[in-house]
Amino acid sequence: MPPSMQHEQSNSKVAHLETIDFAKLLAHEEAEISKLVSACATAGFFYVDLRGQSARTLIEDEESMYQAMAEYFDQPLDVKMKDDRGTHKHGYKPPGVFAGVKENSKDNYETLKVARDEVGANSPLLPSAVKRYPRLFDDFISKSHLVTMTIMRSLSNALCVDPADRFEQHHRDEADSNTTLVLLRYPKDVSSTCVGHNQHTDIGSLTLLFSKQWGLQILSPETHEWEWVAPRPAHAIINIGDSLRFLSGKRLASCMHRVVPTTETPTEHRYSVAYFLRPENDLKYEDPEGRAISAQQWHDDKYRTFADSHEKQATNSILLGGMDVASREGIVV
Ligand SMILES: O=C(O)CCC(=O)C(=O)O
Ligand SMILES: [Fe+2]
């Protein structure tokens, strides 16, 4: 799947993001940890180099994952709708459910969500497309978990978080959470009413994102302009979500992002894979409006907001997690 280059016709710049070498983080290299903290406190978005031994199966498996996704999403809509489980943690969502990237549009992406706990328990509720590739899904989720939890540990150390409040203490294996692997396809045969993926900040703690295709943009906290995130072979993107920002006392930044079509008439579907590491559902934190809220409630409120009209979304701070205000004020570390 060659990356599409039509973004070059657009006026937006390509974002300069830090690159963190996962192998160096695992080895507790201080210089790498400093780079990590600085990236998390400023852009809240960075590349992670996965070529080291411990996580390289993720890049080896990436292509197989896209193939499994094509197989799944190529099925007729009525077959996929049988996997719609009416939750935001599991199963299928068709395009057009949430607000899209253009005013008054709906979104143009379909998703299959595969929760970490169901894969771990080999649940009979998993779609057959997932059950067909048990090793692929199991490995992809456990390696994604290793990468994201290693980053959480490095951040707890670097920010000298109290032992009881270390970020990992809010992501224990035995507690319920909404951690899930999300497979996304942006169909090429777009209707004019369904466009891209609306601007937002992520709900959870960390997102580990894979895509070989252009389309992702971040709102640069420096220039306040939309910039393209270039796909890079053997690297994934990591970004901080609302939950980790709230947990860190807003020392870490989440970043507004969106997905836009690179051309008016796309010739290929766009595929991306996101591992959403989310905290324990019972965790309490303060939202941007100062309300004490549980992680589960924030998750549910945010998904409800994704489905609201653009007009309604602009009436509160849920969609952007308060980052529209924070980016104007500058982030204090
Ligand atoms: O598809 C992408 O590249 C990004 C998706 C995303 O931002 C999300 O699902 O939260
Ligand atoms: Fe996102």
TrEMBL record:
One of its GO terms (molecular function) is metal ion binding. GO terms for biological process: small molecule biosynthetic process. It comes from the Eukaryota. This is Clavaminate synthase-like protein. Keywords: Iron, Metal-binding, Oxidoreductase. Belongs to the iron/ascorbate-dependent oxidoreductase family. The keyword Iron applies. Pfam families: 2OG-FeII_Oxy, DIOX_N.
